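[Discussion] Sanity-checking designs against the backbone

I'm trying to build intuition for which residues belong where. Below is a C-alpha cell string of 456 positions. I'd appreciate it if someone posts a full sequence so I can compare it with mine line by line.
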C-alpha cells in the first residue's frame, strides 16, 4: 500500500512529506528530537478517524501536535510515523453562557478563547506561561496549569466532555454537558494528561468561570528562598488562599531588571508575588491579611499601586524563563529538571536542596515558579558548546528529579512527562505504572499512539 497516496486521499494538499517540512516537526521546546515520515493537517473529526484507521491497519505510529510549545518532547515523533498537526482545527463551536461552558476544537489558542469570552464576563482559568500560543488540545494532553491554579485549579477541573478518536479510528464521547454524573468510569479524566497515548482529542466541552471584579498584588521580599517558602506555608496555614503565589529568586530578579529596568520590584532578596482576587472588599482584606502574616519574615512588603504596575510585573514573570540570556548571553536555558513539585509543607526543603544541587555542580540557576501549589521551576543554564557543562547539567537534573520523588512529590507538575522524564515514572509510581500500561494496552493494543512517551 502507498501510504502517501492513501493519506493524500484523506487530506489532499494538507500532507507534507518533503524533508524540509518534516524537519519543522522534529522537535518541540525540549531537547527531544525525532523525525516524522508524514505530517498531516486534518480539518475534521472524520479525517482524524480515517487517518487513525489507516495507521492502525498498517501499524504506523501517530503523534498528535498542537503548537509545539511542550517542554518534555510529548509532541515529538520519536518513533517516526505520522504527526497529526491539529492546529487547523481551531474553531470555537459554541459559547453557552447559560450552561457556563464552551465547546471548542483542540487547535484553539487559549488567549484567543479568553478574548472571545471576555465580552461575556467569563474566562477559561488555567493560565500557562505560553497562553499566547499554546492550544487547548495541548493543555488537555498535559493537564496544563499555570500561575492561577492555586485558586482555580488545573485544566482537568474544567473539562466536562471530550470527543476522542481511539487508536483504531473509533470516535467516542467521554462525558456530557452535565455538571455532574455518576454513570460509569470517568473517561474524561483518564484522557486528560495522557499526552495522546490513549486517543486524539477532536472536540472539548469546557467549563468557564466569571471574571473576578478586581485583583490585588502583594510583593514581599525575603532574606532567602527558604524563608520565602516558609512565608508561603504560613500564609496558607492562616487560611489565606491567593489566586496566584509565585516565587522569583534573586537571580530571577536580576534577569527581570535587565529585561525591564522600570519594573517595580525589590532590589534585594527573594520575592514572593501574592495575588488575590474577588470583590474590592474581599480582595483588599485578603491582601491586608497576607501583609500581616508575612511582615515578621519579610525584608520588605508592599501592595502594588496600580493595575498597570500589576500587569507589567505579570507580563515580565511570564517571560522570565526565556529572558535568562540577558544575564549571560553565552549561556542557554535548558529545559531539564525544571518542573518538579512537592507538598506545600516541603517547599522550604525543596528550595534549600535545589540551591545545594546548583552549588554542588557549579551551575548557575534561577528558582522561580508556582510556589503556592508546590511547583518549582529550576532553570539551569549552560554553555551548550561545553561537554562538561552538559554532563554536570544532566547529573544535576537527575538529582532534582529524585529529590522531588524523595520528598513525596512529582517529576512534573504541569509540563508533562513525554520522553524527557519517562525514565522516572517507575520510581514515582511503583506498581501503579503497570496499571497504566494495562490501560494503554487495552485502548491501543498495537501501540501506535505516541509511542515512547510516559514510560509506557
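Best answer:
Here's mine. Compare freely.
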Amino acid at each position: 500500500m502507498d501510504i502517501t497516496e492513501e493519506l493524500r486521499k484523506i487530506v489532499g494538499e494538507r500532507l507534507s512529506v518533503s524533508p524540509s517540512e518534516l524537519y519543522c516537526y522534529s522537535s518541540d521546546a525540549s531537547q527531544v528530537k525525532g523525525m516524522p515520515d508524514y505530517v498531516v493537517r486534518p480539518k475534521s473529526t472524520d479525517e482524524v478517524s480515517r487517518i487513525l484507521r489507516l495507521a492502525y491497519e498498517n501499524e504506523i505510529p501517530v503523534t498528535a501536535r498542537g503548537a509545539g510549545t511542550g517542554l518534555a518532547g510529548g509532541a515529538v515523533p520519536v518513533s517516526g510515523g505520522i504527526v497529526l498537526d491539529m492546529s487547523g482545527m481551531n474553531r470555537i463551536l459554541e459559547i453557552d453562557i447559560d450552561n457556563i461552558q464552551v465547546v471548542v476544537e483542540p487547535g484553539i489558542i487559549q488567549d484567543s478563547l479568553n478574548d472571545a469570552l471576555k465580552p461575556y464576563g467569563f474566562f477559561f482559568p488555567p493560565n500557562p506561561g505560553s497562553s499566547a500560543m499554546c492550544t487547548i488540545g495541548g493543555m488537555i494532553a498535559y493537564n496544563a496549569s499555570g500561575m492561577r491554579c492555586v485558586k482555580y485549579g488545573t485544566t482537568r477541573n474544567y473539562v466536562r466532555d471530550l470527543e476522542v478518536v481511539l487508536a483504531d479510528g473509533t470516535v467516542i464521547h467521554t462525558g456530557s454537558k452535565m455538571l455532574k454524573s455518576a454513570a460509569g468510569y470517568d473517561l474524561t479524566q483518564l484522557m486528560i494528561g495522557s499526552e495522546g497515548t490513549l486517543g486524539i482529542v477532536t472536540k472539548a466541552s469546557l467549563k468557564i468561570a466569571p471574571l473576578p471584579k478586581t485583583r490585588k498584588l502583594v510583593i514581599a521580599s525575603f532574606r532567602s528562598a527558604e524563608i520565602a517558602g516558609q512565608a508561603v506555608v504560613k500564609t496558607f496555614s492562616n487560611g489565606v488562599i491567593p489566586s496566584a503565589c509565585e516565587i522569583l529568586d534573586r537571580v530571577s530578579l536580576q534577569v527581570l531588571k535587565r529585561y525591564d529596568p522600570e519594573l517595580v520590584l525589590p532590589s534585594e532578596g527573594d520575592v514572593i508575588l501574592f495575588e488575590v482576587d474577588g470583590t474590592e472588599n474581599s480582595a483588599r482584606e485578603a491582601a491586608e491579611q497576607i501583609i500581616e502574616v508575612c511582615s515578621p519574615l519579610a525584608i520588605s512588603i508592599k501592595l502594588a499601586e496600580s493595575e498597570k504596575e500589576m500587569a507589567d510585573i505579570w507580563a515580565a514573570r511570564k517571560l522570565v524563563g526565556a529572558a535568562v540570556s540577558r544575564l549571560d548571553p553565552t549561556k542557554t536555558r535548558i529545559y531539564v529538571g525544571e518542573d518538579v513539585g512537592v507538598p506545600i509543607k516541603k517547599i522550604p526543603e525543596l528550595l534549600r536542596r535545589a540551591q545545594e544541587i546548583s552549588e554542588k555542580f557549579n551551575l548557575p540557576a534561577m528558582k522561580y515558579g508556582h510556589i503556592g501549589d508546590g511547583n518549582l521551576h529550576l532553570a539551569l543554564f549552560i554553555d551548550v558548546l561545553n561537554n562538561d557543562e552538559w554532563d554536570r547539567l544532566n547529573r544535576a537534573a537527575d538529582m532534582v528529579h529524585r529529590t522531588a520523588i524523595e520528598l513525596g512529590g512529582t517529576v512534573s507538575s504541569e509540563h508533562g512527562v513525554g520522553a524527557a522524564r519517562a525514565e522516572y515514572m517507575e520510581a514515582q509510581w511503583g506498581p501503579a505504572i503497570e496499571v497504566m500500561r494495562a490501560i494503554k494496552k487495552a485502548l491501543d493494543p498495537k501501540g501506535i499512539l505516541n509511542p515512547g512517551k510516559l514510560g509506557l
